[in-house]
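Following up on my earlier message about aspartic acid. Here are the inputs again, as you asked, copied directly from the submission form:
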Amino acid sequence: MKKVKFKGLTGLVEFDQNGMRTSVSLDILELKEEGLKKVGTWNQQAGAQFTTPYEAVLDDVMRQLKNRTLKIVTIINPPYTMLKEPADQLSGNDQFEGYCVDIIGEISRILGFKYHIHLVRDGAHGTKSELGEWNGMIRELIDKEADLVLADLTITYEREEAVDFTMPFMNLGISILFRKPMKKVPNLFSFLSPLSLEVWIYMATAYLGVSILLFMLARLTPYEWVPSHPCDQDSGVLENQFTLLNSFWFTIGSLMQQGTEVAPKAISTRVIATMWWFFTLIMISSYTANLAAFLTIQRLKSPIEGADDLAAQSSIQYGCLNSGSTKTFFKESNIFSYKKMWAVMQAQPSVFTESNQQGVERVLKGNYAYLMESTSIEYMTERNCELEQIGGLLDSKGYGIATPEGSPYRTPISNAILRLQEDGILHLLKEKWWSSNKEERCGQEEKKTSISTSELDLANVGGMFVVLLAGLGFACIISVIEFIWKTKRLSKNERDPVILEFMREVRNIICCGLSSYRAKISSE
Ligand code: ASP
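Thanks, got it. Here's what our run produced:
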C-alpha cells in the first residue's frame, strides 16, 4: 500500500514510511451570503495560503459588522463608565455615560454596527485564579456572553493569552493615591524653626567667642584704657570699660538690634564691633525672612514620597483593587520593594477593595494609600482637593478593547481606534471627561503648598561665620600692633622690653585682672 501512487478524487494519493498521506492539498472554503466560496489553499509545506486579498477579507468583516448588534460588557468606574441620572427611568444604552461609552459610540459610527451595553455580573475586571479560572469581564468574553469588553481594562500578558486586545486607546501606569497632609498644629516653639539646630548652636558659640575676644582685645589695646575721671585727665588712673560683663552686654545688645552705652574706642575693638554688627544684620534678616515663610505655610510635608517609602514603613496601610491587573502586577513583580509590598498586602487581605471608589473613600479617611492607575488618580485628584498623587509611575501599560480569541472584529476596531487617535477625538474625549475647574476650587490651597520652606542650615549661612572669623583675626592683629606701638612710646624707665610687657598683659587678661591701673609716663 505504501508504494501505491495514483490520482484520486482528492488529488494525488501517496503515502510516507508511516503510512500517512503526503502531498495533500486542500481548498479553504468560507460560508458567505452567496454560499461556499474558495478563499485559499492548504498544504503541508506552505500551510494556509489565502487567495482572497487582505482588504477583501477586511471588507467582508466590515460588511458583516454592519448587520450585527454586539454585546458589550463593562464595569462602573468613573469616568470610563457611569450610570446616568436618573438611571431607573432610563433603559438600554441610555443608562450609561462616560469616556468608554463615548468611544464605543464613535467606533460604531465608523464601523456601522449596533451595540448593547450591559454590566459585568461579578463586578470584577478579571483575574485568573490558582486553578486557572477567569472571573469578571474576561470570563464573560470567554463564555461568549459578550463580544467586546469596553472598560478601563489593562492589556496584560496573562489576559492576552485568554482573549485578544485591540490597540490601546489610553496609556497609563500604576501610582499612589494619598490624602494631602493635614494642617499643621501650631507649635509653641515654632519661632525656632527658621534656623536649624546646628545654626543655633553655632550662633551661641559665636556670641560667646566674640564677647570673650572683645574683652581680651580691649584689655590688650592701650587705646581702650582711658582716664577714669573725664574731668580729671591727670589723675593718672586708667580704666577699661570692657569688663567681662560689659563685653557680653555689648554683643547681646547688638544681636538683639538694640545697642548699649558701651562704645569701642580702639581700632581693633571697632573692627570686632563692625564684624559682629554685620554678622547680626545678615543673620537677623535671614531669620526674619524665613520666619515669615514658616508662619504662612500651614501644610506639612507628605510622610511618603514614593513606593519605596511605603514599602519601608508600617504605620500607613496600602492596598489596591482586588480583581485587577494592579494586584497581578504586585503579585508577579520581581522588584524588591514591590515584592515586599505584596507580602504586606497579602498578609492583610482587608487592604484590597472591591472598587476604586471604595479605595478613594478609604484614602479620604486617612492613614491609607491606594495603588491605582494614573489616569484614575488624575480624575480623582481633579475633583477632590484633599487627594494627591504621590511619586511617579511604577510601570507603563495601556487600556484596550478585548475581543474573544481569534475574533475577526479585532482588526477593524483597532483601525477605528487609530483613526480616532489621529483625528484627535480620543484627546477631546479625555479633556471632556477629566478636566474640572480644579484651579478655581483648590487654587488658593495649591498656591500655599507650592511655596516650600525649609530651615536655614549651615550651607545657607555658613559664609557669615567665615566672614566673622576673618574679621576677628584681623582685629587681633590690629590689637597687637596697637599694643606694641603704645608700649614703645613709653619712657624706657617705666617699662620692660615689649615682649615682657606683652606677656604680662596676656597673663593679666587671662586672670581677669583689674580694669583700672595707674598710667605710665610716655617718653614724648
Ligand atoms: N484597570 C485594571 C484592570 O484592568 C484595574 C486595576 O487593577 O486597577 O484590571
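One observation from looking it over: The pocket of aspartic acid is lined by residues 125, 152-154, 321, 324-326, 373 (CB under 6 Å). Hope that helps, and feel free to reply on this thread.
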